[in-house]
Each structure stands twice: as structure tokens, then as C-alpha cells.
Amino acid sequence: MDKPSLLVLAAGMGSRYGGNKQLDQVGPSGETIIDYSIYDAIRVGFGKIIFVIRRDIEEQVKSRFIDRLKGKIEVDYVFQEITDLPEGAKVNPERVKPWGTSHAILAAKDKIKEPYGVINSDDFYGYKSFEILYDFLVNNTEENTYSIVGYRLGNTLSDHGDVNRGVCQVSVDGLLENIVETKQITKTPKGAVAPCQVGGQKIFTGNEFVSMNLWGFKPSSFKYLEKEFRSFIDKHGSELKSELDIPTSVDKFVKSGEIKIKVLPTDEKWFGVTYKEDKPFVVESLKKMVAAGVYPQSIY
């Protein structure tokens, strides 16, 4: 079997952060968060990296990543185009926003014939999480069983503002039942809280599993993603901002029993730059890991 590939979703706008955070330098030798994810992916055994990007950052991605990775791992890239639509789809001609993370995966369907992982470009996931994901992709042979790496909520919160998280509902046998998108989760000394739609607060212990968009899929996934994207376009194609995310795409097929998604627990700490104020923490965290020998002083 071919080694698993890793799909890096790097076409997002980064609206809350401001600027192109995918290419922001946070490591001691000018590394981006993507550099650490790729370094970990190579260490655990992934065979290919595929970037999903916008055309306007093509030259930056080529010089920043593609050229530097030659000889280290097979690398490729595809464009997420808002014009890449199902046949006969009718959409708003004024649309400029990409169609979401599910559509981003579909941009790479012609490049992938093997099990594959999916990551966000601006999230730090940690070595152990890539190891857990790789182990699943290599050893799980059930065609329609996929995976998501589950982070503890408390390991994903920001000190600089509230965050939105997909809280995983997990069955007793470790399978994903659904993901509840929960907005405005705020860190507290005892855990976390979020406002309820009907008033009051929802209280979290911090041990709940959340999705940070670290997925493991098989090639069979494309038919499900395509089916759901077609349905999404039929309903929302005229809208300027609606997006189809990965949890929404798989939810229907999880509930119908057509697919299963194993929740793979990790105790790694996630961090990212949701807000500009998060950056110093990211820089300091990476500096400590370099000092501890987890990563080299210079990735390249």
C-alpha cells in the first residue's frame, strides 16, 4: 500500500487574525506553523504533502515550501477555485469567498488514491497527534471507516478571546456520533464556559473532546464529500458567504451508518494564531520545544 498523504488546507482568508497567517513566521529561524506540521508528518512516515491554496499565494508557497521540501518528501499543490462546481450548478456570480473546507478537500481528489490526513495550515497539532493519525491510516483497513483526532477542550483555548469549537459527541465504543459547533467558548480558572441560545451558560470541564480539523480519510470519502457538496450548492449556491465544513459534510453519512469515524484521543496541546495577541505565546511555546530538543533550531 502507498504511504498516506497529508493534505494541508491553506486557502483560508484568516479574517479574524488579519493578514496571511499561513505564512507568518513563528519559529526561531523564521519557521511557520506549517513547517512544524510538515516536519512531524515526515518524521512519522507520511509519503506526500499536498497543499490546497489560492492562486494569489502560489509563488509564495512554491518558494517558501515546495522548493525547500525537495528531496525530503514528495510535494504537490492544487488550487481551490470557487468556479470548481458540480455540473449545472447555479451560483451567485458576485461570490468571492471560497466554499469551505469540504470543498478544499475535493480540490485534491484527482491527486489522491491512498489514505490521507487533513490539517489546517495555521494550527499546531504536535508530533504525537500525527503519529496517532498515521497509525490509523496505515493499520485501519475498513474502507468506509475514517478518523478524527480528538483534542481535550482545555488544551485548545486562547487567553486572548473566546473561540468556536466543534465539541465531539463520542459513543461508548469510541465512534463519533456528531460534532456540536459551540461558539464563544471562554477560558476560566475552572474550565470553560459558553453562552446558551436560551440564556444562561454551558459549563465545560475542559476534558471534552473537540475537533481541530485533524482528520483521517480513505479515497472512498470523495464520493460522500461530492454528494454533500452538490446538495449544499443546490441549497446555498446563491449566497455570498455560506461555507460547507467537513463535520457538516460527514454528519449525514455518520447518522445513516454509511460511514464510521473513530475518535483518536490525543493529549497534545493545540495552539494557533486565532488572534494577533496569540502570536507571542506561539513563539514562546516553540522556543521552549526547541530548547527541549523536540524540534531543531532550524527546520530547514
Description:
This protein is of the alpha/beta class and 300 residues long. It has a domain at 5-150 and 210-245 and 267-291: Spore Coat Polysaccharide Biosynthesis Protein SpsA, Chain A (Alpha-Beta Complex). The protein has helices spanning 33-44, 58-69, 101-106, 127-139, 221-236, 246-255, 279-291, and strands at residues 5-9, 48-53, 74-79, 116-120, 123-124, 145-152, 163-170, 176-188, 191-195, 201-204, 209-217, 260-266, 271-272. Strands 1, 2, 3, 4, 6, 7, 8, 9, 10, 11 and 12 form an eleven-stranded mixed β-sheet that branches. Strands 5-13 form a two-stranded antiparallel ribbon. The longest helix has 16 residues, at 221-236.
Structural class: alpha/beta
Contiguous runs where pLDDT drops below 50 for at least 5 residues: 13-18
Radius of gyration: 19 Å
Which sheet architecture does the biggest sheet show? 11 strands, mixed
CATH architecture of the domain at 5-150 and 210-245 and 267-291: Alpha-Beta Complex
What distance lies between the first and last C-alpha atoms, to the nearest angstrom?
Answer: 29 Å
- Silhouette: globular
Write the CATH fold name of the domain at 5-150 and 210-245 and 267-291.
Answer: Spore Coat Polysaccharide Biosynthesis Protein SpsA, Chain A
Reading off the top of the CATH hierarchy, the class of the domain at 5-150 and 210-245 and 267-291 is best stated as: Alpha Beta
What fraction of the residues are assigned to beta strands by DSSP? 25-35%
Got a strand count?
13
CATH superfamily of the domain at 5-150 and 210-245 and 267-291: Spore Coat Polysaccharide Biosynthesis Protein SpsA, Chain A
The topology string of helices and strands comes to EHEHEHEEHEEEEEEHHEEH
Fraction of residues in helices?
25-40%
Give the overall pLDDT as a whole number.
92
Helix run count:
7
